[in-house]
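User: I'm putting together a teaching handout on how multi-component assemblies are represented. Below are the sequence lines for each component of a complex, exactly as they appear in our records. Could you produce the 3D structure of the whole assembly as structure tokens, so the students can see both representations side by side? Please keep the chain order the same as the input.
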Amino acid sequence: MNYPNGKKHSATNKEHHLVKKQSFSNRGMTLEEDINVTNQVLHQQNKCVVHKKPTPVQIVKVDYPKRSAAVIKEAYFKQASTTDYNGVYRGRYIDFEAKETKNKTAFPLTNFHAHQIEHMREVVAHGGISFVIIRFQPHNRTFFLPAMKLFAYWERQYKGGRKSIPYQDIVEHGIEMPTGYPVIVNYLSVIDQLFFRMEE
Amino acid sequence: MNYPNGKKHSATNKEHHLVKKQSFSNRGMTLEEDINVTNQVLHQQNKCVVHKKPTPVQIVKVDYPKRSAAVIKEAYFKQASTTDYNGVYRGRYIDFEAKETKNKTAFPLTNFHAHQIEHMREVVAHGGISFVIIRFQPHNRTFFLPAMKLFAYWERQYKGGRKSIPYQDIVEHGIEMPTGYPVIVNYLSVIDQLFFRMEE
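Assistant: Of course. Below is the structure of the complete assembly, with chains in the same order as your input.
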């Protein structure tokens, strides 16, 4: 079976030694690739409509050659003012950012920009569902951390606190992401659990 | 008073001859500029969180000069697979596209791509609020058209129907956008009227 992006899923030898739950997050794919495939699958399954926003680019110079497409000849990467992913699920606005770290013991808060945190605060204030997906590569574990929990760590760093979230705190306060196939990083099941359980 | 983008609002002589209602959509600003300013003002007023998505670009070649920012040397514009604007308002997901036409009698459906219409359908199916903002430049009038109304015209063109929406139909089935200052294109008041009135 192929993923919608055409990549085949292939288990490596290493994977056979891992517990089943983890086997799909160890295919040499980045977290971003995993989420993009997940979004495509969820889209095909008609579960939600979530897209990654295009990379923001400041375009400076464009050539318009005759009889062919416009070519951007000079442009620069701009810092994103929001998070990377947003969309709609069960009528609710959802908005999230995904980051992975090679760090074993903590997740550095430098992975986020102040305006991204501000954006997430606003989303929560307006009734949206906001969260981050954090992968610890060395542990091969991926967590769902509600934005509200992130805010506490973010503020603490400006009050003389540490500039990272300890791995153990994320294990404790986050929710480990169910991983599987074909939905690799099943954030919807966590949203169901956290935000819709009461209503069912 | 200045807009958040630093542009001063200046009335032209021509404006003084127009009715007050229309005076702010005749400043030589494009619909896109009007909506961007509107979104900034609504954001500052803490009414909603709506952003324009970055222009999708396929990056082919990037230079990394020493001691300076990465420069994109070759890139191409990609067709957008979704609409341009989305965000959260009163807990609901909102999603829209804005187009203006120089046509006096009808709005050409070629302004939309099939996948944008498909995206809007999905948004509606998942409980989001989807609409288009259409400006007729010659009439200096801007309308809010709920996506559901657009779909009917979109389908009709594949059944031998016309490939445009008559101006009079938009006047009748759309809602003329309240325009003013500093909120130029007040789509939130139309959303309140159409989607939240029952709850108040």
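A couple of points students might notice: Residues 31-44 of chain B form the longest helix (14 residues). The beta strands of chain B are 49-52, 57-63, 71-77, 85-89, 92-101, 106-108, 129-136, 141-146, 164-166, 175-176.
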